[in-house]
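Quick log. Single chain, no ligands specified.
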Amino acid sequence: MAYYFLFPEIDATLYSHPDRVDMNTGGDEILELVKERGNTDQFYYPSRIVIKFKEEEIASIIENTMGGDNFASSKVNLQLTSVQAKNLTSTQLLEVYAISQSWNEGTNKYFNLPSASNGVTWKFRDNSIQATAWTTSSLGGIGTSAIGEYGGFTIEQYETVTGTSGSIVSSSDNGGPITPGGGVWYTGSGFQTNQQFLAGDNLDTNFDVTDIVTKFSQSYFNDAQYPIGISNQGFLIKQIDSVESNVATSFGELQYFSQDTHTIYPPKLTFKWNDQEINSTLPKASSGSFNVSLYNDKEEYNQNDEALFRFHVRPKYPVRTFSTSSNYLNNYIFRTDAKSLYSIRDAYSEEEIIPFDTEYTRLSHDNESSYFKIFMKGLQPERYYRILIKHIAKDGVTIYDNDYFFKVVR
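-> predicted structure:
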């Protein structure tokens, strides 16, 4: 079983606050979903997050690393690590959409003075000089007045006509419209996903974006057009329409690390697929106590390595038999079903990088040993990592944590 991580090419937060509709945040360490109160009114203005991963890297993973057959049964998740949250309501529902227009990241930061507009903003998808606005005034024949006032159209009806949605123009019942902008995205099944958070939940995101990435791949490999394939312009993360359009209430604040963070927690696109191989006649360690040792491993791996980790598994108390060789030299393998798993943790922070996953971290087995493969390119370089093995035997569960360390270097 395999995990592979991609890190973003570009990301930014788009602010609809009147003082920040022209402000670029492409260089910020933080991405946030927040509703800011206006300086001259009583309204709350939402923000959105845009994030993109390199199309060539996505294609390389699908074609070269996992293969098309494995991709057909794989999962892809968009994961962001939470920094902090403030004043949240008991339930939060976030949405992810495939962006339908290109955009530039820029290098400005929220607290830069003077503020620059050299990249994507709520109003523009490039900068304030070229000033290429997000297409919100007309979508496939729907006029400016229709999208500005909704004109009886719903988001689903926009999709029926054009397949894309412009930025929602939110306002309260007594006025206070939000400036049109904030991205343009595809809607409908296969183009969007969501994740709900309840009070007390871990606020790290784990959006299932498999369908969206599949549409990216159809465009890249097969030149398929909408609705089968779409070009990769990235993902847009936002709060649901009813929260954004209610400009009388904040609903709280969610912050996440960006690609510019100086921590080990940048956003990542996680590919998971089944690469398990079982071709062994060795006896299985189904019950009892075992000595488990990692062998032929290295202390350091280059970030471009694909490393194979093998484990000797031997009974602590072998059955006494008459033999010309020691019973302590007999090699076993772990159970070949979903009962033997591996996990990778950051050795310093104890952050779980790859969890024990009954679908995607099962061990492989051959006539030499039990083993698994790690793609080092998906791990942060210049860090130490620790390997854990979980074995669910007939007589109990054992976690083997025997100081199996390795370092990834550039």
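Residues 138-163, 169-175 have pLDDT under 50 and may be disordered.
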